[in-house]
Amino acid sequence: MDVVERLQNHHIKPSVQRMSIMRYLMEHLTHPTVDEIYTSLSPEMPTLSKTTVYNTLKLLSEHGAIQTLTIDERNTCYDADTSPHAHFLCKRCGRIYDLPHGETKKDVETWEMNGHNVQEIHFYYKGICKNCQKEETPK
User: Fold this and answer.
1) With the CA atoms of 38, 72, 12 and 98 taken in that order, what torsion angle do they form, in degrees rounded to the nearest 10?
2) Chain centre to alpha carbon of residue 133
3) What HEC string does the chain produce?
4) Could you tell me which residues come within 8 angstroms of residue 25 by beta carbon, excluding any fewer than 6 positions away?
């Protein structure tokens, strides 16, 4: 799916900034922060502001085009993959990894939660990633 189609599917009017930010998220599966997105895009878009990036990410998240992650107390991160999956935060390097998760959207929509309408669930795991573990293993 291309960027314009994805925005339109989520009832978001495409603009140059929105398309650039959505494209960045779709191409960079690193769970970037506002600062990382701004730093990457601003050289090519001198009129782009951090406020525009923040507001665009908020809009994309509110319309379900992206996920907002609050796994890290210091930074809010963003993920273009909106399929049900979990996230793992390495406490050493700070990288966030996608993890498979067995629940499906259909399963979530059918959950009876004391009469509440469940619209999203977040599964966050924290520990030391396999790459950092390899680095500390004596050779």
Assistant:
1) 100
2) 25
3) CCHHHHHHHCCCCCCHHHHHHHHHHHHCCCCCCHHHHHHHHCCCCCCCCHHHHHHHHHHHHHCCCCEEECCCCCCCEEECCCCCEEEEEECCCCCEEEEECCCCHHHHHCCCECCECCCCCCCEEEECCHHHHHHHCCC
4) 32, 37, 60, 66, 78, 79, 80
- Read off the tokens for 60: 């994309």
**Amino acid residing at 14:** P
Q: Contact 97/90 with Cβ under 8 angstroms? A: yes
Give per-residue pLDDT as tens, 9-61.
Answer: 999 999 999 999 999 999 999 999 999 999 999 999 999 999 999 999 999 99
The residues, any chain, with a CB within 8 Å of residue 76's CB and separated by 6 or more, are: 33, 34, 68, 69, 70
Tokens 């960045």 — which residue?
24
